[in-house]
Amino acid sequence: SFTGHGNGKAERFVAVIVVAVVAMSIAVAAFTLSYQRDGESYTEFYIVGSDGTVESLQTDVAVGERFSALVGTVCHENTAMDYHVRADILNHSGAIANATVATYEFSLSDGQDNENGLEFDLDAVGEYQLIVTLYVTGSAEPYRELHVWIDVYEP
To answer: For residue range 85-139, what is the model confidence (pLDDT) as tens digits?
Structure first.
């Protein structure tokens, strides 16, 4: 006959399983929300035109015209960092000797950014390579490197 009551032992077993699953779910959710990973450590390093866009970066310059760009760095290293930047122009046409056109140092906290202007003149027709190198201060090895090819033409 049907009395409306089920098997007491089976109901208790199912209730214990449901409570255990809910408790484990809460524990996993609490751990996931409280656990903070450091994430990936890296430094953004970029060069853009003087108005802040890649499209405005000069790659064709007339003899005597001023090359102008912004070199940017953003620290995502999860700690403060000291950087050193060096910009070199390499001549691939034999017109003039290679030269360092800029060098500077700065410090950034995690999440902080820095943009520096870079300007120089090229006085001879030819093909040049601008190499901007980022170093972590105290290291002789380059940390990041940017390359821009510049064609200098007679106006």
So the answer is: 999 999 877 655 678 999 999 999 999 999 999 999 988 899 999 999 999 999 9
DSSP three-state, residue 9: helix
Please check the confidence at residue 52 and state whether its pLDDT lies above 90.
yes
Q: How many CB atoms lie within 10 A of CB 75?
A: 21
What single letter denotes the amino acid at residue 95? A
Strands 60-62 vs 126-136: parallel, antiparallel or unpaired: unpaired
One-character DSSP codes across 38-73: ----EEEEEEEETTS-STT--SEEETTPEEEEEEEE
Instruction: At 7, list the tokens.
Output: 């098997």
Q: Cα separation of 107 and 15, whole Å?
A: 59
Q: Looking at residue 111, what DSSP letter applies?
A: T
Res. 1 pLDDT band, cuts 50 70 90: very low
